[in-house]
Design goal:
mainly alpha; two-stranded antiparallel sheet; 9 helices
Amino acid sequence: MKKIMMLTALVAVGLMSTGCAGKFRGGDMSSHMYNKYDQTEEGLVTEESYTEVAVSRFERTDDNGDNNVTRKESEESRFGKFMPGIMEYWFNKNDINNDEIVEKPEMLTTTAGEFKAMDTNKDNLVSQEEMKVYRKNEIFDAIDADSDGVVTRAEFQASKSPFEKR
């Protein structure tokens, strides 16, 4: 049963991150997400561009504009309501000092680390393929709430939007 759930989760993660799970405004989801970042003429994302998008998302989540995101702000954000499991993963990953507040410098530290992890060929640019590979692993980790390398039905259901639960 665990193998079936693991396979199901991997297929779901693969579909979400490659865009095969559905189209989004005429294109696939992975292309839409990648295109949120300003790109070089070669279509590659710079660390500066990646950071700008992360800061913008952080600021949209920071309801009171104090450069801190509380767990409550995170949970009540638009994305927190849509994908609560993934938003919880984001919060825990960025709350480096575990004080239940994500401060902007913490988020910037995590963002810099993410960019370096994505840039597998170390050219200081991230291709769409590099980002896809990283995001697939990150989505799986976000869904695997107990970090045991297996996604159970309960973990998968908990990661979904309340509107999608059946």
